[in-house]
Write a structure and sequence with these properties.
This protein is mostly helical and 117 residues long. Helices cover 65% and strands 0% of the residues. Helix 4 crosses helix 5. The radius of gyration is 28 Å and the shape is rod-shaped. Bound molecules: heme C.
Length: 117
Amino acid sequence: MKNTAMPYLYIFAFGIVAIFFMSFIGLNNMEEISAEKEGGGEATEEVAASPEEIYNKSCIACHGDQYQGGVGPALTGLTKSPEELKAILVDGTPNGMPGGLIPGQEDAVAEWLTTLK
Ligand code: HEC
């Protein structure tokens, strides 16, 4: 009798251990998920980034750290209107200005570009 019951006891004990184990894994995942949510908060901060920050991320490589130009032309003293500049930022140009670099930020950055001296 004792011998036939033993395997069930082992399975029972194993099941309890497994449940403990899984709940610890679950706790770990919960912490990871909430950490990811905090990371997601940073992403929304990016949306609210200032034009300078956007420039430093997406434009500086071609237009220079002082807007003096490089691969692209200097961006100081632009005579184009914010609307024209926005169109350049959205669509790019055939001569090497890539469009769509800063989706949703074009208005703010176009306004800001007109203030560069
Ligand atoms: C891969 C290099 C590259 C990157 C990155 C880049 N540009 Fe340009 N940009 C150019 C080039 C090249 C031109 C000139 C295009 C032409 O003459 O048609 C240009 C032209 C422009 C113009 C028009 C200037 C004028 O006098 O008409 C503006 C405004 C501009 N870029 C803004 C930006 C902004 C803002 C960013 C970042 C979101 C950016 N660019 C990122 C290469 C780049």
